Give the backbone structure.
Amino acid sequence: MARATAPMPSSQRRTRGFEAASGLLKDQVRVAGESRGFAVARLLTHWTEIAGEQMAAITRPVKVGYGREGMGATLTLLVQAAHAPMVQMDLPRLKERVNAVYGYNAIARISLTQTAATGFAEGQAQFLPAAAARPAAPDPVLQAEAARTAAPIRDEGLRAALEALAQNILTRRKSKEG
């Protein structure tokens, strides 16, 4: 009589097929972020969307510190001294937007660390003016070539994604050649 094999627990089960690159690096990114207190990596990776373009151009999230009681954390932002008063006025709105990312009131207060644009180790982060933070307009020739490459695709969403991919590849290729 054939013996039935017991199913593998889900923790030992292997996935079949391809795995997304984000899944392969997820644990390493989480560990690196948590070492600085960032339990939600989206706070770092999508800072421009969270803080707004103008605020993101003059601030950088540096650390999330948790108190002994665990009742709310402190987000430390790096800001140039000249912009600190303007950022200070906008802290309540910024705290609401950051807490919306967490889904609850995780951040109780925001602390500003003023620094020069160059100098201290943390201050070496380049602050960009709001106009420079926007990407340059795409080359119309490359844009047309990318559209022509993705033209046979019928699904609009897929075609748009492939056009963007083709444009990125062509732009990178052009910058390496020229």
Notes: Residues 59 and 79 are 5 Å apart (CA to CA). Strands lie at 59-66, 73-80, 107-115. The two ends are 71 Å apart (CA to CA).
